[in-house]
Amino acid sequence: MAGGLSQLAAENNGFPVLLLDKLHKTYNPGSNLEVHVLKGISLAVERGDYVAIMGHSGSGKSTMLNILGCLDVPSDGSYLIDGVDVSSLSDGQLADIRNQYLGFVFQTFNLVRRTSALANVELPLVYAGVSRSERRKRAHRALEMVGLGDRMSHMPNELSGGQQQRVAIARAVATGPSIILADEPTGNLDSRSTAEILAIFQKLNDEGKTVVMVTHEPDVAEHCKRIVRMRDGVVSGDELVPQPRRAEDELRKAGTGQSVDMHQGDVTHVPLAAAR
Ligand code: ADP
Ligand code: MG
């Protein structure tokens, strides 16, 4: 971990792990292609939370997640990780945070082609300067955690979509980040693979990792602890899910070989203000 941030963060222990304050994002400012996407987002995410970000296509979900992942910068307002203002960090510190503090999972998996599952998972560990033998050990552990211990030498094109996404999750967690950010991670997957991915996120969250996941599927969001809704660049709703669905149980009930019914039972949501 970047010495600077962990030191600063230790002094800021009471802070939410992620804090957006009046955040704005304008693409192509000052040109005729200017578009004001985020219009004052304020959001606090506590350590160990599991948050679904929902909203129509174009509402700014990916824009916000990219800023949370330090892949993009806000135009105005502030973003604090563990109480540390991200805009105060050097490029080197930001690279360290992206590599070791945050794990990113994308809809399209983004694996390196013609490179084994094991080598894909080792990649961020190479950037983190981890020794070869330690790299192998950690990548093995991460792939076993996602149930792919027997597929380590497979190339991405020899794996199903769900398996590729599990490799991508192993890659995201191999460096031991405490925050997982996922942008529509189940958007390209069938319902069984979706349940498998959700079971892994739930396990990571049970272990204490903070998870923020963009999804437009209510069935997926019902597995999270909290649902934040975006509309026209602002937060339009924020609710706790009283009893998040357990993907692991749904998989077990479905047994092997059967498709998983994601559409079971209705979940009622309690407005956050009322629940807290
Ligand atoms: P969502 O993920 O909710 O579908 P996005 O955050 O991807 O929404 O996009 C929000 C809006 O910002 C859309 O109108 C989109 O066209 C625009 N947008 C996204 N990325 C860029 C970019 N790099 N340059 C210009 N406009 C962008
Ligand atoms: Mg998007």
Order of helices and strands: HEEEHEEHEHHHEHEHEEHEH
Tell me which CATH architecture of the largest domain applies here: 3-Layer(aba) Sandwich
* Adjacency order of strands in the biggest sheet: 6-7-8-3-9-10-11
Percentage of β-strand residues: 15-25%
CATH class of the largest domain: Alpha Beta
Q: Report how far the terminal alpha carbons are from each other.
A: 33 Å
Mean pLDDT: 90
How would you characterize this protein structure?
The chain is an alpha/beta fold and 276 residues long. It has helices at 3-10, 61-68, 91-100, 117-127, 132-145, 161-173, 191-206, 218-221, 247-254, 272-275; strands spanning 18-27, 35-45, 50-54, 76-81, 84-85, 102-106, 179-183, 210-214, 226-231, 234-240, 270-271. It has a seven-stranded mixed β-sheet, with helices on both faces. Strands 2-1-4-5 form a four-stranded antiparallel β-sheet. Strand 1 (18-27) and strand 2 (35-45) form a beta hairpin. Helix 5 (132-145) crosses helix 6 (161-173) and helix 7 crosses helix 9. The longest helix has 16 residues, at 191-206. The model is unreliable at 263-276 (pLDDT under 50). Magnesium ion binds next to helix 2.
